[in-house]
Amino acid sequence: MDTITVIIHGWSDCSESFVQVKEFLIKNGIGTVETIYYADYESREDNITFEDVIDGLYDRFKEKGFIDKDGNPLKHLNVIVHSTGGLVIRHFISEYYSHRIEKCPIRKVIMLAPANFGSPLAHYGKSLLGMVFKGRYKFGDMFEVGRKLLDGLELASPYQWKLAHKDILINNPFYNREQIQTFIFVGAKGYGGLRKFVNKKGTDGTVVVSGTNLNSVKFSVDFVSEEEKISYIYPKTDTAFCVLRNYDHGSIVDEIHPDRRSQISQLLLEALKIKTAEDFGSFKKRLKMITDETYKNKEIYQQFFIRTVDDHNMPVKDYTLEFFVYRYKDRYISQGEVIKKRMSYKEIYWSQKVHSYITDEFHNNTKDPSFRRFIVGLKGLKKLLKDCYQDLGDIILSVKIHIPKIDEGIYYQTEKLKNIFLLKTENGDIVEETPSLFYPNTTTLMQLKVNRATKYVTVSTEPKRH
């Protein structure tokens, strides 16, 4: 079966930005003018949705003869995506092929700085400022920004949560060396010049580096049952992930050029040429070595994606997470709960410092604030806990959720919202627990379920008057 290469751009972009990528591939023997295609979608149309994009892609693939009328493969496809293109291709695969992955025409996905778990710039993208800093602003488009796509791109969006549960947090993810070989490349450098104004910590200028990886873990805490239940879903995806020191969100594409030899262009070629699972495994190990070198003298981040629901899985939109530090004593921990009630002045001081550090970039999703996101620099956290040890001795770190009542008759059973034990230190170093809380360069999903109750419903043998 012949192989076709398809290039998919990101938000507020078009295939014109990838002409040099196609020329580079042809020059290096990867396809021809006739076998490398661009997939374009009007990302700044306010009414277009991700469902529209993948529906159009499915129809165009039929028209081009890549798949037959039932979606069965007529060609093998290698897909190269940038930024939002990562969400597009994941949605496409999960929608049309997750139930019949053996029929999927896609053999490889190469993601360049994919927005798998959003971008801190997405909610700014709805403004003129966001369009200007994206770099492809046109005066005629100033009132059209692609609001529905930007809703999906916003940090902690319901769209990302739903998609992750369809293609990552499943029993048998298809992103692996035997089915769909998946390669993720992202830069670790923010923008320079005027655009450095929009840089956020842990980003390549646009996407969160730890939000590009597909190797996610999920923790679920159920406060509804009589006994608190904590469950885990461990990463089962098998993708090749690489963070490159000297690239930002734009240059990771711009440096793939027929007249240049760059690190990213050579890695792209290697990825496209890999055939066997063994070769994939060897390449994956080498990419890990590159990533480790990138972070030798650089902060490394982990992103946390929180959702809080009630006992009917309805969103809880008003809640607060608070982190606490206690001097370590074994008797303070019981069945995953910190049971110490009173805090010393030093414990209060260090709780405030650690809480401020963890929640420094806390984001409530604007469409549904039951979804929240924060990002933690892991090296910085370890240093902070070391400083704490010097003053307080070994410590316990915990988190508690606070939820106000709805009104006088509708409330959440807050007495069940325990102070959850997260970690402890030994000689100032974090003690590794099983399961671990820390997964560098990943997005960790956490769902909290709480019981909503009401006094407005009564059952009695006596009648009630209004």
Helix proportion: 25-40%
What's the name of the CATH homologous superfamily of the largest domain?
Answer: Alpha/Beta hydrolase fold, catalytic domain
- How many independent structural domains? 2
The main β sheet shows up as: 6 strands, parallel
Query: Which oligomerization state do the chains in this entry correspond to?
Result: single chain
Overall CATH architecture of the largest domain: 3-Layer(aba) Sandwich
The average pLDDT score comes to 93
Tell me the Rg in angstroms.
Answer: 24 Å
- Count of helical stretches: 11
Unreliably modeled segments: 128-142
Output the CATH topology of the largest domain.
Rossmann fold
Q: What is the strand content?
A: 15-25%
What are the main properties of this structure?
466 residues; six-stranded mixed beta sheet; Rossmann fold; 11 helices; 23% strand; 2 domains; 20 strands; single chain; six-stranded parallel beta sheet; alpha/beta
Would you kindly provide a written description of the structure presented here, covering whatever features stand out?
- The chain is of the alpha/beta class.
- It folds into 2 domains: 3-216 and 232-294, Alpha/Beta hydrolase fold, catalytic domain (Rossmann fold); 301-452.
- It has 11 helices and 20 strands.
- The strands form 5 sheets. A 6-stranded parallel beta sheet has the order 2-1-3-4-5-8, sandwiched between helices. A 6-stranded mixed beta sheet has the order 7-6-19-9-14-13. A 4-stranded antiparallel beta sheet has the order 10-15-17-18.
